[in-house]
Specification:
alpha/beta, 18% helix, 7-stranded mixed beta sheet, binds flavin-adenine dinucleotide, 29% strand, Rossmann fold, 6-stranded antiparallel beta sheet, 15 strands, 6 helices, Elongation Factor Tu (Ef-tu), domain 3, binds FE2/S2 (inorganic) cluster
């Protein structure tokens, strides 16, 4: 029998899942977004929740093909399912695009840093997305719109290659109608049916109303687009210190062990992928070491 004078036993912490071990998930729903882009809704095979910060990514393992980093594009308020929007570029993303309802997928994560949604409270928010870059920004938009009263003006500037490449078309339409969200879409090349803006996304920056001195900007897209966006925001008066970017590099471990994503002194998987612009401006044109 134990004595009341015995030292209390330390409470055992719940074991943390090994970050290198993929957890099995099942495809619940697939949705084609554009000719080369699709969204997967995943549920954990054993049930449970999967909390994440807007801007974080997972390593998705397509059995028998390989593993790739993909940002989470779903709503952080619904952590019981995982949503990823992916563009087909090579073997793994092609294999992922062929998955059907009921198929299994391995998931490691969530990894990396998130968008500064809390730091932006009280400010105007300008979200600038190019192409598939809208997917990693969508969770930040969900979170901001869920607490809309905490922010000033909220502006989304989105550029796609053509009207057929516009992601989340219905949702953009709904957001524009239902929320106090200023949505502007532009395309590089128009079709005859397109009645909207034509030109690169940076051309929208001088035209939209926001207070540059009280603005936080979140930017995601190809690196050239992000560089020109930062310069255009600065021209408008938004200091680079208030601009955040998401960087992409080839990855293997996702947790700062292998050095695959190292770029100068930074590990994109661990210190990023979301960085304050001033921390990565010099690294942006460099590939991995
Ligand atoms: C943190 C992070 C988040 C990402 N989020 C998304 C996302 O939400 N949706 C999405 O569609 N993609 C995303 N990507 C990119 C995605 O990981 C790559 O497209 C994928 O790894 C390509 O694998 P693959 O085997 O299909 O093609 P591969 O055969 O590996 O490559 C095909 C072509 O794509 C190029 N490529 C491969 N990886 C990258 C990369 N990381 N950046 C730029 N070019 C690359 C290759 O150089 C090659 O030209 C993200 C990448 C990172 C690092
Ligand atoms: S992917 Fe291994 S260190 Fe970043």
């Amino acid at each position: 029998m134990s004595s009341v004078l015995e030292a209390p036993r330390p409470v055992e912490a719940a074991p943390r899942p090994d970050p290198m071990l993929p957890v099995p998930f099942v495809v619940e729903r697939t949705q084609r977004e554009t000719a080369d882009t699709f969204t997967l809704e995943l549920l954990p095979q054993g049930g449970g929740r999967f909390p994440f910060d807007p801007g974080q990514f997972n390593m998705l393992y397509v059995f028998g093909i390989g593993e790739v980093p993909i940002s989470i594009s779903g709503d952080p308020a619904f952590p019981q399912r995982l949503i990823h929007t992916t563009r087909v570029v090579g073997a793994v993303t092609k294999g992922m695009g062929a998955l059907k309802r009921g198929d299994a997928l391995g998931v490691r994560g969530p990894f990396g840093t998130g968008w500064p949604v809390e730091e932006a409270e009280g400010c105007d928010v300008v979200v600038v997305a190019g192409g598939i870059g809208l997917a990693p920004l969508r969770p930040a938009l969900y979170e901001i719109l869920a607490h809309r009263e905490r922010y000033g003006r909220v502006v989304l500037l989105y550029g796609a290659r053509t009207p057929d490449d516009i992601l989340y078309r219905k949702q953009l339409h709904d957001w524009r109608g239902d929320f106090d969200l200023d949505v502007h879409v532009t395309v590089d090349r128009a079709t005859s049916a397109w009645r909207g803006n034509v030109g690169v996304v940076t051309t929208l920056i001088p035209r939209v109303p926001f207070d540059p001195y009280h603005t936080v900007a979140m930017v995601c897209g190809p690196e050239t687009m992000m560089r020109f966006t930062v310069l255009e925001l600065e021209r408008r008066g938004v200091p680079a210190a208030k601009v955040w970017l998401s960087l992409e590099r080839n990855m293997k471990c996702g947790v700062g062990l292998c050095g695959h994503c190292q770029c100068g002194p930074k590990f994109i998987c661990k210190d990023g992928p979301v960085f304050p612009c001033v921390d990565v401006w010099d690294l942006m044109s460099r590939r991995e070491l």
